[in-house]
Amino acid sequence: MIARLEVVYCDGWDDGVVNPLTAKAAQARDAAGEPYTAVLLIDDRRHAVLDVSWADEYCRVSRFDAAGRQVSCHELRGTGDGDLFLRRAATWDGPPDVGEYEYPHVAARTRTTYRLSGTRTDVVEPCGDLGARHESRSIQPPPRLPVPGFRRWRELLSLAGDAPVEIVDAVRHPLPARTATRPPWRPPRALRPHGIELLFTPGTQVEYHGRQLRLSAHHAGRLHLPSGRLIAADPSSLNLDAEPFDVTVPPGTYPVSVGLATFVDDPGHTRVTAARLDISDRPAVRWELALRNGQDPLDLDYQEFFGFGVDTGMACYVDADSADRVTDLWRTLDGLVEPRYRTTDSGDMVAWSSGWGDGAYPTWIGYDTSHAITCFITDMLLFPTDSQDDDED
User: 45-53 and 108-114: which strand pairing?
Assistant: First the structure.
C-alpha cells in the first residue's frame, strides 16, 4: 500500500511551522530557486522535512519516527552539471524509550560523506556520543539524481529511505504555527567577499557603530615568492600548521599593500582592514576563497569560511620555501602598533596587525577575464558581514 503524505509549506520548522506559505507561494519560490521548507505529514504527524534552495543547489531531507524523533538526515548538493548528489547522510537507531531531544545523543549513529571525486567516508558510533567511534574510507561514487520538480520528491524520499509515497497538499493540519523575522534555517551560503575593493579606495568613509572611519591604502613593501606558493598566517604559527594555498603563481617578487581605517574623531587610532598581494595590474572580475590541501567549500555552512587563526594580533605573507627561515621574526615585530605593517629587510615576510586582534581571517583570490590570478586579498573582517543580502553574488 502506498503511503499518502500531505504537505505544509513554510519558511522552516522549529518545534512547529514558521511563517506558513501557501502552495502557490512555495511553488513560486521553487521556480525562482528561493529557499522554502516542505513539512510532510502522515496521520497528521510530522514524517519528513525538506529544506530546499535550488539557487544554492541544495536540499536537506530530515525524517522522523512516530515519536517525533529524527531518524535520518540526507543533504544533497549540486554536481555542477545540473544534477544533485548525496553529500552527507546520517541515521540514528536507538532504544524506543528515549525522548526526541536525548535520542540523537544516545542512539547508534552512522554518518556518511561522499565527494564527487568518488570517495566515501563512513563514521559509525554504536553508542552515540558515548563509546567507540569507527571510521572507514572507500572508493564509491555518490548517488545522483536530477533536480526534482515541485512536489515531485519521491526520489528524494526514496534516497532517504522511504517506501513509495503519494504526495498531496494538505487542506488543513494540526501543527503549531508562528511568525518570525528570520527563518529557522539558512542555505549553506559560505561567506563571500563584500566590498573588498573599497578597502583599498583612499578617501572612502564607512560607519562603524555610529563612528566614521576613513579608509586609505599604503604600499607595505615587496614580497619574495621564490616558489610561488603563498602562505597567509599568524607569523607565530609558521613552524606549526601553516600551509600554502593550493594555487600557485609564477615565482617572483610582488608588491603588497595594506588598507587602513582611521577613526575620524580619533586620528591616532588606526586598524588594518586588509592586505593585498598584487600578481598583475589587471582588475579582478571574480573572487574565490583561497583553499589549502583538503579544504572543500561544500563543507562550509552559512557565512562560514576557511581561513587562518591569529593568536598574536599579527598576520603575515610568506613564501612556503621561506617560512623556515623566518619562524622567529615575529618576536621582533613588537605588536605592529605603529606602524601597523612591516616588511622584513630580506623581503621574505610582510606582516601587519590583524584588524581588531585575534580571530580567524579569510583570503580571497582575484581572477581576471582570462582566469589568471591577479591578486590575493586577506580580509581582516573589520566590518560586520552578516548583514549581506542572501542573494548577493
Answer: unpaired
